[in-house]
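call fold(seq) -> tokens
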Amino acid sequence: MTPSFHGIRQTLLGGFLLTLLAFSGCSEPEPTLQVGDVGFQEDVLRGLSPDRRLDLSAITAFLLAVAHEEEGALDELGAPLVQRRAEDRIIDRLRDDVRLRAHDVEEDALMAFYQQTPEHELVVRHLLRMAERDLPESLRDPAREAAEEALARARAGEPFPELVAELSEEPGAAERGGLLTPGRRGTWVPEFWEAASRLEEGEVSEVVETQYGFHVLRLEERRQVPFEEARWTVAREAARLLPDEGEWDAFLTDLTEGIQVDMGSVEEWWEAPAEGADPILARWEGGELTARDLAAVLPSLTAGEWRSLDRGDPELRAEW
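ret:
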């Protein structure tokens, strides 16, 4: 599923953008790097390579565009990156399936493999006493002690949602009784997941420390994830257990054998693209790649890919 930009927006602006703005040199000397109304002093940039500074500029420009809600900014700046990520995932899955087919691994074998160590979705309530890890112990101890008190009262039989309403410092926890959206591996920070996954239904955990503070967890329900939903993860794990016998390289050779690249058109378009022109850069049976197709991909390139393409090596560009 393509992630929602509006969901991402809150996360970005809630933390990283404020950090960037904090670096803005309001009363400092002229910044070394200026992106819109955000300036970065040299002491902040020290140690960053030119490529990293370029990345910082791009991220800052994107976040400022989102913060200012510029029309089309989300689609124009973010969509190519999301599309590239989606395509990378498809390629990764295809690579796994190519190896599985080469080793005659059928679906029933994958299903049996999954049943040995199935994935689970956990329904958890939790109580949080907030304390950042970099605070001195003397400032963290009260939060730890409050969490231990909550644990003792929970194990003495007090209703967990009522304890959450009284003691939890998580925003909105009281209304939810500490109930979280059901989570799977990777949903929560590792310490939280590991503690939750060890519990039996109805059991309350020991005090768990994470980057957010001290938690007490109660497992409400454990659900096995259906094989159909976990299939790609299972395929990846199974494929990694099989020997690499060059199946992917052979698959790519067969796939690209019929592609004909017009290097003259590629070089001409790359060096001096004509306005409005959309030359065909490559052809294969049943399809073609035009300059417009390639241009749609360019915003998602990494700095390293840009350097490779811009070095002027025709063979490298053709291969890419």
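Confidence is low (pLDDT under 50) at residues 1-27.
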